[in-house]
UniProtKB/TrEMBL annotation:
SUPFAM superfamilies (UniProt xref): Nucleotide-diphospho-sugar transferases
Protein's organism: Virgisporangium aliadipatigenens
Pfam families in UniProt: Glycos_transf_2
PANTHER family: GLYCOSYLTRANSFERASE (PTHR43630:SF2), POLY-BETA-1,6-N-ACETYL-D-GLUCOSAMINE SYNTHASE (PTHR43630)
Entry protein name: Glycosyltransferase 2-like domain-containing protein
Length: 406
């Protein structure tokens, strides 16, 4: 497949084989679907953005708003705009699938209420999609635009958002993904040069909407429905670990060692979930001070990502900064080498963009070369925040460090 808008193939399209997936006559209708609940803050911006694009329909599927969301929608009089109210079934897949059933046969693009089209995307949307419409197997593929954090500029490039309406459906109560109903086939995932901006995970917004608590409950539900699926074990850990002790975290990581079958239609392998789970677990375990378990998981991560995991560089560096000798030239060199190796960074279970390593390098530079050197480096990096860094600035610094940075 060749298209000027094709950025990357994250998962190749499987052959349609005997499936009847004959493409529609071009051009296909394009529906934008917005699943919303209590989104009065952002939904007007979202709708103004997508209604400025040459799409055929905009479907707002409201799952029980009690604020002014529906009033804000009603202020738009565009005939392409339709509102459907639906009971929330504790499943994002169910809501998205309901929107797909309501949409016209063709393309559907999901835009969250806290998102809006990036500059230029409205003009490029039709030319981009039309280039894929002649592929006989495109019914088994989803497209992934760049989803860009409006504050930090960090991009998420492999999240499915656009797909044909007649062949794929969503699966999972949360962290849902596209699959082929009734078949154990992994759909293709194609990165395309379209962009969405979002701001819904600003800490104050996420806290006000209770997103972490909601996701924890939904991940537990997904795991209950498919207890051996490694995807749900991983997300149960990642979303819920901040309320767990060491024993609960170890229990979930141990469960992943026995979950060795890929979930139906999931493009990620059990080993991938295991590796990512160990990296995230180390963050919470380090926060709890359980460094013995952190070092055990670091040894496992190194075996899974030879010769060394970028995440073990990070956690061992944290231990030296907070509990050991502090920054050393050798540690700075090791972190810098890991950060420069794109293949190494891509294996990170914490952040394949390497922001955590940048924060660590910034902390090393601050101790070894001073505030100006650290600031000069961090000014070129995207920010990183976790229990040890806030916006790539080290938390819990010594009194001496605070005086230097004052």
């Amino acid at each position: 497949m060749s298209s000027p808008f094709l950025r990357n193939v994250y998962e190749p399209i499987p052959a349609a084989g005997s499936l009847d997936l004959a493409p529609l006559p071009a051009p296909w209708p394009v529906t934008v679907a917005v699943v919303a609940r209590d989104e009065e803050r952002a939904i007007g911006r979202c709708l103004d953005s997508v209604l400025a694009a040459p799409v055929d329909a905009v479907l707002v599927l409201d799952t029980g708003s009690t604020d002014r969301t529906l009033a804000v929608v009603a202020e738009r009089s565009d005939p392409r705009l339709e509102v459907v109210s639906r009971r929330w079934e504790n499943s994002f897949a169910a809501a998205r699938n309901a929107a797909m059933k309501r949409a016209r046969t063709g393309w559907i693009m999901f835009v969250d209420a806290d998102e809006w089209l990036a500059p230029g995307t409205a003009e490029l949307l039709r030319p981009c999609l039309s280039g894929f419409e002649t592929d006989p197997d495109i019914g088994l593929a989803a497209l992934a635009p760049n989803i860009i954090d409006a504050d930090s500029g960090v991009q998420y490039r492999d999240i499915a958002r656009i797909m044909p309406t007649w062949s794929l459906r969503w699966h999972g109560a949360v962290h849902e993904y596209p699959h082929v109903p009734g078949l154990d086939v992994v759909p293709g995932l194609l990165g395309v040069e379209l962009g969405l901006l979002h701001d819904g995970y600003r800490p104050q917004i996420a806290k006000a909407k209770g997103k972490r608590e909601r996701n924890t409950v939904l991940a537990a539900r997904a795991r209950h429905d498919e207890p051996e699926n490694p995807r749900w074990i991983f997300f149960a850990l990642r979303d819920g670990m901040w309320d767990m002790d060491s024993a609960a975290i170890v229990e979930l990581c141990t469960a992943l060692t026995g979950a060795d079958r890929r979930g139906r239609g999931d493009r990620h392998s059990p080993e991938s979930y295991h590796r990512r789970a160990l990296a995230h677990a180390c963050t919470r375990l380090a926060q709890l001070g359980d460094w013995i378990q952190v070092f055990e998981y670091c040894r496992r991560l190194d075996r899974m990502s030879p010769p060394a995991s970028p995440d073990t560089v990070y956690f061992r560096g944290l231990h030296e900064l907070f509990h050991g000798a502090g920054a050393t030239p050798a540690a700075l060199l090791a972190a810098t080498r890991a950060r420069k190796d794109a293949d190494t960074v891509a294996r990170s279970g914490l952040d394949p963009q390497g922001r955590h390593l940048d924060a660590l390098i910034g902390a090393y530079l601050h101790e070894l070369k001073g505030r100006d050197a650290a600031n000069a480096y961090l000014s070129m990096c995207h920010e990183w925040t976790d229990p040890f860094f806030d916006g790539s600035r080290r938390r819990g610094r010594s009194a001496r460090d605070r005086r230097v940075s004052a």
